[in-house]
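Review form for a predicted model. The reviewer records the input and the model, then writes brief findings.
Reviewer: anonymous (R2)
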Amino acid sequence: MDTRTKQYLDRARNELTEYLVYQKLALREKKRENRELLERLSAQEKSHYEFWKTLLPGVEIKPRLQGLYGIPFLRTFLGVTFTTKLLESHENDAVQIYRAMLSEIPDSHKDRFRKMIVDEETHERALFGQLKERRIAYIGFVALGLADAIVEITGVHAGFLGVTGSTLIAGISGIIVGFAAAISMGSAAYLQAKQDPDKSPAASAVITGISYMFSVVCLALPYFLITAMLTAFTVSTIIGLLLLAGFSFFGAVVFDRKFLREFGESAGLMLGTALATYILGSVVGKAFNIGEKNF
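Model under review:
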C-alpha cells in the first residue's frame, strides 16, 4: 500500500468512526433537539466516509475501536456536550490536514472535497453550538465548589504544616473548616441562582456544596493515612492539582478555552495561597510556641 492510499485509509477510518459514534450518541439521547443534531452530524460524517471510500476501491475499511466504544462511554459520565466538543477538537486538526491534502486529490473529486472542508470548518461547528444540556448550565456552580475548596483547604493544611506535625489535627481541621465552608458556599449559590429564572436555587446549592465537600474529603484523606506531615501535605497537594487539571480540561473542551492558561491560573492561586498560609502558620506557631505542645 503506497503512502497516498494509507493517507486516504487513515481519513476514511476517522470519518467512519465518527459517523458510528454520532449514531450511537443519537440513539442514547433523550432530548429530541439534541438527537436530531447528532443524527445530522452522523449523516454528514457518513457522507465524508463515503467520499474517501470512492478513493479506496476494494480496500476494507474498519472503524477505530477505541473511539467507537470509548467516546460513548465518556458520554455516560461527562455528558454529550463534552464528548462532542472533544470530537470537534479532532475536526480542527482534520481541517488542517485536508487543506494540505488538496493538491493530492484527483481533479474529479476536488469540488466535493472542498465542500467537505467547509463542512468540517463551519457547518459542524454551528451544529455543535446548538447542543443543549442541563448539566452545562450548572458547571459554574461545580467550578465554584471545586476550585474554592481546593484553594481554601490546601491553604488550611499548609497553615497547619507551619504550626504542628500532627497529620490527624490537620486532617480533622480541614474536614471541619470544609464542612462549614460548604454550607456557606451552598447558601451563596442558592441566593445567586434565585436571580436566574433558568436555574433551580436548590439544585445550585446542592451541587456547589457536594462539589466542595468532595474536594475537601479528597484533600483531607492523605492526612488520615499518612503520619508524616510533609508527605501528607505533598500527596494532598498533588491530589488538588490533579482535580484542578481534570476540571480545567473539562472546561477547556466545553467552553473552547486554553487548557494550560486555565490550569496555570488555578494552580498558581492554589500554590500561592498555600505558601502565604504556611508562612502565617509558621509565624503563629513560633509566636505562641504551639509546635512544641502535645496535641
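Findings: The chain has a mean pLDDT of 87.
Further findings: The chain has two domains: 3-134, 138-292.
Recommendation: see findings above.
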